[in-house]
Amino acid sequence: MGANPNVSRRTFLTWYMAGLMTATLVAGLAPILVYIWPPAPAGEKLGDVTVTPDAPLSTLQNGDAISFKAPQNSGFIELDGGGANSPGGRTYGGFAVMSGGLIRFFAITCSHLGCSVAFNASAKRFECPCHGSRFNLQGQVIHGPALFPLSHLHVTESGNDLKVYGFTDQPA
After folding, report:
1. Could you list the residue range(s) of the whole structural domain that residue 70 is in?
2. Is residue 11 part of a domain?
3. d(Cα 120, Cα 114) in Å, to the nearest integer?
């Protein structure tokens, strides 16, 4: 067995330099990738977060919205979105909206730059106070600069409370 006598010096040096450059590239990119995709914080537990909306969902009429906020040291996980919102992104409040006989649950975060949207009851739409984006009752953009709709939240009703998929920070 042993070394292959048919490997030329040129082939050996080519493979040696390619390996050296690859190792240098990996060593340089590793810290950057850790910065871009940081690990999940220690002590964070994923699961349902129980919240009480500002009013019972049974009082929702077509075209109305009810807000709810995450408890202290908790937040919600966005199911979809674009721009400042992304699947798996975090938000700390939401809206339950009755539209066309269906209740939809949206994150409070604007997809433009992440500001908190407010519900304009007289105009029956969501408005971002930062840059003027507007969203209809289905969460779709009706006026920019936002390019993407509001993110949905995974919510199950539990009596007068809501169970929203999210996270809770556990004390260390």
Report:
1. 44-169
2. no
3. 18
